Prior knowledge:
Blueprint: H1 2-23, H2 27-46, H3 71-90, H4 95-107, E1 119-120, H5 122-132, H6 142-148, E2 157-158, H7 159-180, E3 189-191, H8 192-202, H9 217-232, E4 239-241, H10 242-247, H11 250-255, H12 264-269, H13 274-287, H14 297-300, H15 310-319, E5 322-323, E6 326-327, H16 329-339, H17 343-348
Helix pairs in contact: 4-5, 8-9, 9-13, 9-16
Amino acid sequence: MATEQQPNWADILKRRLANSKRDEKSEEENKSEETELFSKYYTEWKGGSNSGSSYKTIPRFYYRLPAEDEVLLQKLREESRAVFLQRKSRELLDNEELQNLWFLLDKHQVPPLTGEEAMINYEAYLEVGEKAGSKCKKFFTARVYAKLLHSDPYGRISIMQFFNYVMRKVWLHQTRIGLSLYDVAGQGYLRESDLENYILELIPTLPQLDGLEKSFYSFYVCTAVRKFFFFLDPLRTGKIKIQDILACSFLDDLLELRDEELSKESQDSNWFSAPSALRVYGQYLNLDKDHNGMLSKEELSRYGTATLTSVFLDRVFQECLTYEGEMVRSITLTLITSLHPLVQIWLQKPTCYFPKHHSCGLNISIFV
Length: 368
C-alpha cells in the first residue's frame, strides 16, 4: 500500500519544485513591480495625475499644501525639501575650490597691468572656465564677462572684481539655503517665529555678541526682528520674502558682527551690534517707569527729547494693539525702529511730516 502511494508523493514534489522555479523572479523584476504598484496606488490615492483633458495643453501649476492632519504628506514634503537643499548645497563651491579658482585666474592674467590690478581677457577667461570644473561653469559666460567689462582699452576685466563676484554669488546661495532651512511652509517666506529662530541660532556664531548674557537674547532677537519686519513687511502680513532679506543690507549688517576686529564706529552705527541693542534696551527700561514690560502714553511721551506731541501719541495708540491702554514690547520696538532714523531730523527741523502709508504699517498722517 505504501509502495503504491510513494510515486504519487514524489510526482507531487517534483511538480511543486518545477512550479516554484517558474515563479521565481529576479531582484530587479521584483523591484520594478513594486515601483509600478506604488506609483499606481499613490496616483489613485491622490485622485489621478492627468484625469482632466486640460492637462494635455496646460501643465499642472498648483500643488496643495498638506493639511495639519496629513502627517505623512508633511513628512514627505519636509524630507523632499531637505534633500533638495542638500543637493543645492553640494553644488556650491567650497573653500578649496575657490582657492583653486583664484590660482587659475592669477596664472592666466593678461598684461599689461592696470595700476596694481591683474586683468584677464575673454580668451583666457574661457580657458579658465574649462579648467575650473563643472561647478564654475555658470560663472564663465559672456553675460557675466559683459557685466564686469568697463573701460579697459584691451577689452579685459579685473580678476579681483570677477573673483569677488563669484564669492558674492556663493555667499548669497549659501545664505539662501541657510534661511530656507527655517522656512517651515516651504513657500519662500519667513514668518516672525522663523526669523526669530534663525537669529537666535546665529548669535553664538557672531564674535561681536559674545558679551551678551543669555537672559538678554530674547530682547536682542526681538530688536533685530523688528528691524527686518518694519522695513520688509510694510503691509503687516506677518511674513517676509527670503529674496527681500537677501536683497537688503540688513543681513550684511548682521553678519558683519562675525568680524572680530570690527571698529567701535562701525559697531555704534550698526543696529544689530551689542552696544546698539543695549542702548535701545536702556531707553526702553528708562521709559518703563512701572516696570510692567509695557508703555503707557505718558511713559512713551518721554522718548528721545520728549518732542512727541499728544496728537501723535493718540494716533499711535489708536493704530496699535494695546492691552489696557499700554503698548507691548514688540510694538514699542517697532515704533523705536521707525523713529530712530528721524531723531536727528527732528532736532534740526521741528516740523516733520509722516506719509499716510508709513512703512511701519501705522496709518499716520499728522504733523509733530
